[in-house]
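Recall that a protein's primary structure is simply its ordered list of amino acids. Everything else, from secondary elements to tertiary packing, is in principle encoded there. The following example makes that idea concrete.
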Amino acid sequence: MAAQKILLPYNHTPQDRKALSFVIETFGQRGEVQITLFNTYAPLPEIDMSSSPELGKLRGGLAALQEEFRERESGLKVTRHFLLQNGFNDEQVDYVFMKREKSIPEDILDAANRGHYDVIVLSGREAGRVARMLSRSVHERILRAAAGITVCIAK
């Protein structure tokens, strides 16, 4: 039997940890599963800092954002390692950390379709009102467009 491919969008939130626990409890110890942690980041603007001394002041802010990106990717590696400690082997778990090309739901769907994933596991909604609205929008857009892909929402 071919391996079941699972895409797990992961952004290091408490809700994402619940989705991670769901994946471990449901798919751990199964050899025919492949899991990909998925995270996108908004691209940094390309600014010619040498054209103006005022633009040079942005250097520190951009450096801080680049450091945040490195920390987020490092967090994905830690999460991957956590999966390895909880029933998965090295060949079963991968991660994708990429520059956002479109919107979050479109990038998730594009990755799922390109990679021929069988399942997308989404985390439950965030606690705050605005965050709930945004996550609902992401969930609804993925649910509407995910043809031939099972979508799980872990709460």
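Residues 59-85 form the longest helix (27 residues). The domain at 4-154 is CATH 3.40.50.620 (Rossmann fold).
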